[in-house]
Here is the input.
Amino acid sequence: MNNPRYIGRFAPTPSGFLHFGSLVAALASWLDARAVGGQWLLRMEDIDPPREAPGAQAAILHTLESYGLEWDGEVVYQSQRHEAYAEVVERLFRQGLAYACTCSRKQLEGYNGIYPGLCRNAGHAQQDAAIRLRVPELTYRFEDRVQGPFEQHLGREVGDFVIRRRDGLYAYQLAVVLDDAWQGVTDIVRGADLLDNTPRQLYLQELLGLSQPRYLHVPLITQPDGHKLGKSYRSAPLPAEQATPLLLRALRALGQATDAAMEQARPTEVLAHAARHWSSSAIPRNRTLAEAQLH
Here is the structure.
């Protein structure tokens, strides 16, 4: 069934090269869009320059092209969106929905990552401070297309969260919500490591009067030690010459049927076949999948 109003996206962080876990997420997102004749956008989440790896942006684009994962339109760079982020932070601060926080990491040790509200009513100025968003004592629920129902009490499980860091850089939670809305994204397909980020994003969407996309979180591919495949763990980058076998392996990780005849096919042929037979209901409902178990 075609749905040309479907707009999906892939939003890598250029802190390193794409790896097999990245491929699984990108492939799921691409197929979910192409299977219904939708658009697939590419956004570079380059809002944290200190973490950016030299050459990573160009390598990411080259890898996606090598694997046949073509995108629609121009690549959006979050580093060029600072004015939009600044305007929203200032508005939330002015409305009393956000506040300045001068807490150091040392002060927050022992709180298990849940902000205890130390600066909530302190009235600090914005200079040399992070900006935190006040969260309500409410439970946010949503239905993930693969993982099923998920809920999180923002006050007890997260606490007021940062939307602009003390060093002036904008936080992921703010940037992703604003950019998804600006680009008209209707469907977000990404790794299950971001599942528990979603309630914060739902709250921001509600606060700013933005539409809520549909969400689908695919299993995270893990290493033998249990860590996710990721740039910070120096996971192997995707070799261009192995595009077809790795695409087939990623399809199997997503629960999709593959054919032995496809092993000799070009990446674009593999993708076209996979889009015709895409079934999001076949994706494993696990939060994680061990890479060693994939064939």
Remarks:
- The first helix runs from residue 20 to 34.
- The chain has two domains: 7-78+184-195+215-293, 82-172.
- The domain at 7-78+184-195+215-293 is CATH 3.40.50.620 (Rossmann fold).
- The CA atoms of residues 64 and 70 lie 7 Å apart.
